[in-house]
Design goal:
InterPro entries: TPR-like_helical_dom_sf. By secondary structure, the protein is α/β, with parallel strands linked by helices. It has 28 helices and ten strands.
Length: 582
């Protein structure tokens, strides 16, 4: 194709990109590329800035600050990666390629021959590969559908649950503890540039920009405030910084090593360190900075990571004063509930969210967390409301959460969990995809998606995801083990399956005991079968609907369901109890 592409060619190229499923599934990215392409075609390049994209395309308010909110950089990186994937695959034969240079938002239109020569700026971080699935924005509810404020309903439901829990435990409540003021808010981490000690100027690109990548990635967790500390770190103590993240890059034989160090400002002590060793092939990755940032982010952003250790220790030590609770501590309580899934932690997390100031209580995080707690901790009748009414209420809350925080990975993950509980598996998978698009380093989301894939018959794809989360997350919770457990059962590795199943059963009170029975039967351990069968019979959801009837809401894998049926009948469960109340 001779000369520069004309407008008609560019518009045809844009139409092809917008029709590509990976873009079409993400309305936000579709609007992003349509906006910047048409602005350039209209000669309005000066208006293609982070602020205008955030406000006009991504729905940010007029007071949006590009310096404190990285959403435009994050979405540009996703779009850039998708464009590269498109032109490597479906769009390889297109006569015009739309190219988004690194570090800029103004697109370039390249004839096919010139497109392959487009260079990436050497001092900028290459793009991150896109996740496998992206969600379509959820439908908005009509105004007036809920005549009673949802918050009143939620308070009533949780009050009944709290009373029931208190009557069941019969023990004296623990005294409320006072918290040092420095642990009340989410930690502030200053990330300084990593220093290259390789001695080779060509290796500058292996360190330059990593701090920016880490700031961008860690911001997506919403439980850490991250600051860019430049090359020296500035006056951390004076800026209220709690931790400084620094590091070096060096070569050890053929390996490239990134050594990260987290220093607590108050004590000047190193509280965490990690070495990421890369093979020559890994070091040559075009997205090496994204890759390393993701590995470090999986630890630092985790609720079990080092920056949250003190807050978690305090929360595990007993209840707090209502005056001390805030959104950060509520999130920590929610994460503790998720790891343990016990009634006590659920009650504390729900009480925390409900007693927040109005502004925080209506934040995306609080709404989404409460919605998940509502669905996962209520029975068939909560305050005179049916299970369906509880689920409908949770949907309203999650729609409001997405309105409040449309780019929160946490919010989208809770939406995925709701869809999964409702048996709407296609929508659940799409929502998990959106959550991972927004925060690809969240191992909780990765593990949850892996489990969902396994339940829907895609065990092979699930296994790689699950081990990636288990091997990189700090203190991986027992519920991460579901996929390895299912693989062990399928492979007949019953000794390993039994060990995994007993741990998993503590966090999944529906399926966990059943999988333990299946593993025990494989070993011929009748005593273990007899210990776990009463736990299956004690699940209220099973008693109301039948075991398989309830499990079919979560599981669509017919082979797994058939093995569950065979196992439970062999254990002595009546076939009628599999499909009806008992």
């Amino acid at each position: 194709m001779a000369g520069d592409p004309n407008r008609d060619d560019i518009e045809r190229a844009l139409a092809k990109v917008l029709d590509w499923p990976e873009i079409a599934r993400s309305p936000q990215l579709a609007r992003f590329i349509d906006y910047i392409v048409r602005r350039k075609l209209d000669g309005d390049e000066q208006s293609i800035k982070a602020y205008s994209i955030a406000v006009d395309v991504l729905g940010r308010p007029p007071d949006f600050d590009p310096q404190s909110d990285p959403i435009v950089r994050v979405q540009a990186r996703r779009l850039r990666a998708l464009l590269e994937q498109y032109y490597r695959t479906d769009g390889a034969g297109d006569v015009v390629h739309i190219h988004l240079p690194v570090g800029r938002y103004i697109p370039e239109f390249l004839a096919a021959g010139a497109a392959s020569k487009a260079e990436i700026e050497p001092d900028m971080a290459p793009p991150q590969p896109p996740p496998p699935a992206v969600s379509v924005a959820p439908p908005r509810r009509k105004r007036g559908e809920i005549t009673v404020p949802w918050f009143v309903l939620v308070v009533g439901i949780f009050a009944i649950l709290a009373l029931a829990y208190s009557l069941l435990t019969l023990g004296p409540r623990q005294p409320v503890q006072a918290i040092p003021a420095g642990l009340l808010s989410r930690p502030i981490v200053s990330v300084v540039e990593f220093q290259s000690l390789t001695g080779d100027p060509a290796d500058t690109r292996l360190a330059a920009g990593l701090a920016v990548e880490l700031v961008t990635d860690l911001d997506q967790f919403e439980t850490i405030t991250t600051l860019y500390g430049g090359s020296m770190g500035g006056s951390a103590a004076g800026n209220g910084v709690d931790y400084i993240l620094s590091g070096i890059v060096r070569r050890e034989g053929q390996m490239l090593q990134y050594s990260a160090i987290l220093t607590e400002v108050v004590t000047s002590s190193v509280v965490w360190s990690k070495v990421v060793s890369l093979t020559p092939e890994e070091a040559a990755r075009p997205d090496v900075l994204d890759y390393v940032s993701g590995l470090l982010g999986r630890v630092l952003g985790s609720p079990r990571g080092p920056v949250h250790a003190k807050a978690r220790a305090l929360l595990l030590n007993g209840p707090l004063s209502a005056a001390d609770e805030n959104l950060y501590l509520c999130r920590m309580l929610f994460d503790l509930y998720r790891e343990r899934e016990n009634a006590a932690m659920a009650e504390r997390a729900s009480n925390c969210f409900q007693t927040l100031p109005e502004r925080d209580r209506r934040s995306g995080q609080a709404l989404a967390g409460l919605a998940s707690l509502l669905v996962e901790t209520t029975g068939a009748d909560s305050g005179g409301r049916s299970r369906m009414e509880v689920v409908d209420l949770a949907q309203v809350m999650l729609n409001e959460a997405i309105d409040a925080s449309p780019t929160s990975g946490f919010v989208w993950e809770q939406r995925a969990r709701l869809f999964e509980a409702m048996g709407r598996h296609g929508e659940a998978e799409a929502a998990y995809g959106s959550a991972l698009q927004l925060n690809s380093a969240n191992t909780d989301t990765i593990a949850a998606r892996a489990r969902h894939l396994a339940f829907t018959g895609r065990l092979e794809a699930a296994e790689a995801l699950a081990w990636g989360a288990i091997n990189t997350a700090p203190d991986a919770p027992a519920w991460y083990l579901c996929v390895p457990l299912l693989v062990a059962l399928k492979d007949g590795a019953f000794a390993a399956a039994t060990e995994l199943a007993e741990r998993y059963a503590e966090t999944d009170r529906e399926l966990g005991p059943i999988l333990t029975i299946m593993a025990a039967q494989g070993l011929g351990d009748g005593e273990m079968v007899n210990r776990y069968l009463p736990r299956v019979l004690d699940v209220q959801a099973f008693r109301r609907a039948g075991v398989l009837t309830q499990l079919r809401r979560r599981i669509t894998d017919d082979d797994l369901l058939a093995r569950v049926r065979q196992s439970l009948v062999a254990a002595g469960l009546s076939p009628a109890a599999l499909v009806g109340s008992f």
